[in-house]
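Annotators were shown the component list below and the corresponding predicted structure, then asked to write short factual statements about the assembly.
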Amino acid sequence: MNFLLDSLIQALKLIFSYDPEVYLTVWTSLYVSIIAIILASFIGIPVGLAIGPCRFPGKRMVITLLNTLMALPTVVVGLVCYGFLSRMGPLGHWGMLFTPWAMVLGQVILATPIIANYTLGALSAADDRIMPTALTLGASSLQSSMQLLQEIRFGAMAAIIAGFGRVIAEVGVAMMLGGNIRAYTRTMTTAIALETSKGEFAFGLALGLFLMTVALLVNMFLNLLQQR
Amino acid sequence: MKPILSIRNLKKSYNGQVVLDIEELDFLPQRIYSLVGPNGCGKSTLLQILALLMKPTTGALYYDDWPVVWKRGELQKIRRHVTLVHQSPYLFHRSVRYNLAYGLKIRGIHGDEQHRRIHDALETVGLEGFGRRNARELSGGEQQRVAIARALLLQPKVLLMDEPTSNMDKKSTAEFDALVPTLIERELTIIQATHMPDQPERLGSEIIAMEQGRLV
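Structure shown to annotators:
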């Protein structure tokens, strides 16, 4: 019990003494995940908007595929991306492996199906009079889709936040594509795994507290949106 | 007089069942038409087709003597002159003003002109001072009037209305009945579906009776 208590006190000291190592790791996690989620939103939301209101053969299959992709194991995404980005891989000449951009790529792949699926969910709950109303007021197809997005804005926000929750907490992609390089690609999750294995439990705990705080804030925001 | 909308040999089917079958029908400008008939006789389907929201299975629709081409860009051009007010109109989750400004913004109408048209339209339907109110928090009748105002301020050539007074109380219905004939002076053609047996006469409208998708 003393061990846990001592570690917690030490972790809090690291946080409140603004330990640069802790804050640099938190910053790396945040900026990689924020860039990834912005890119994934630009793909996932239009995918949801394109599939949702349309009727086409194989729609159910596409939705099932998106559902399956939501459960993609992060290490599998890491593995496949590694295959493409490693020096021997087809995209090896990009020199992206073990950079923050490789982590962004992996996280975009993880978050896009989540955002697309949540958007689809929001669309299925949306009123089917929205688009005809916009059209009859003179909107083009694109403008009516944008109006539909406006009307489901809280659902779309929830989609983005759910995607962010997934990527900020993942380890597989960050470890395999980022390489856990100190002050460059070390994220909260990879640092926790590394520092704990080195016996630096307090450092891991400090990052764990940050991660929990981010998760808490994300969930609080999500709940707030769902209540609206 | 040249018709503003014409229908020739128009049919609409769902799963092989014909729900609308009209050989010939012309709507002349600056007139009021009332579509009457029992539930499911095809009134709403006809309005959806006239509003270019539904493509007929076969047949042709003419707007101002030009055949309607069912391509996105072409449809959008005509929809700027033909507006439909649904039976249960959908108002966007914003203020009344936002709802009224939507179609104007699409047409590039901003500033004073936008402000004037919104003010006039709200006055026309008796909702002055409602601009800042949340559109979704209004009563059914008020929402219906906002939807009519939203259509009117676009100054369409054809105004289609599906059971426009279905959510209105007696007083609002009487106001609506008084308003409609005055709209004709704005070079507007009105085609409405109605269930109220005495309303077509009150409006001085031409009656188009329908039954099982056909004109009677």
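Statements collected:
1. Chain A has a mean pLDDT of 92.
2. The first helix of chain A runs from residue 2 to 16.
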